[in-house]
Specification:
The chain has five helices and nine strands. With 175 residues, the protein is an alpha/beta fold. The chain has one domain (2-172): Nucleotidyltransferase, domain 5. A five-stranded mixed sheet has the order 3-2-1-6-7. The longest helix has 20 residues, at 77-96. It is globular.
Length: 175
């Protein structure tokens, strides 16, 4: 079985675990002129490159993809819109390639693969206990665990191994 893990977003990544071999790369993106009145550019998923990247791995009944759910935060509207746009483009590519898929929250795969000492319990505004971790520590731990699990992968320039670890989590848990 080929497991594809996608860390959603234009700054995300794609990991593919196929038996003993693995592949990892950043999400292919392209710059485009913003749709607002102000002259600006933004990144979007390059659907042609994504399609070409995934095609060699797609085999009937032998491929499964797990996507990390996008961030949604009303206080970070522009980032949320970017995440939703990226998810929509990725879903379209997976649908065209007929790749079965499911979704996962970041905390689920992180708890399964990253050291437990990264999280601490904090009270939310309603007084309920919540697990929280420093995002920079999560990225560093992700990269270090990725290097340990997949020593043949070149992680130069990558800030984490999230997409690859999502694929590995799916493989281990038979998702």
């Amino acid at each position: 079985m080929i497991h594809i893990g996608i860390d959603n977003g234009v700054s995300g990544s794609i990991g593919i675990v196929n038996g003993k071999s693995a592949f990892y790369c950043p999400m292919p993106v392209e710059k485009d002129l913003n749709y607002t009145k102000k002259k600006a550019f933004f990144n979007r998923v390059n659907v042609n490159e994504l399609m070409n990247l995934l095609k060699p791995y797609v085999q009937a009944d032998q491929c499964f993809c797990v996507l990390e759910r996008p961030m949604k935060n009303p206080g970070r509207f522009a980032a949320t819109i970017s995440a939703v746009r990226a998810l929509e483009a990725t879903e379209i590519v997976l649908k065209l390639l007929k790749v079965p898929r499911s979704y996962i929250d970041s905390k689920e795969w992180q708890k399964g693969l990253l050291p437990s000492g990264l999280w601490r319990t904090v009270k939310d505004k309603n007084g309920r206990d919540r697990l929280k971790a420093d995002p920079a520590e999560l990225k560093l731990a992700s990269l270090e665990i990725g290097k340990r699990l997949f020593p043949s992968i070149n992680f130069n320039g990558m800030k984490d191994a999230d997409g690859l670890l999502i694929a590995e989590y799916a493989r281990r848990n038979r998702l």
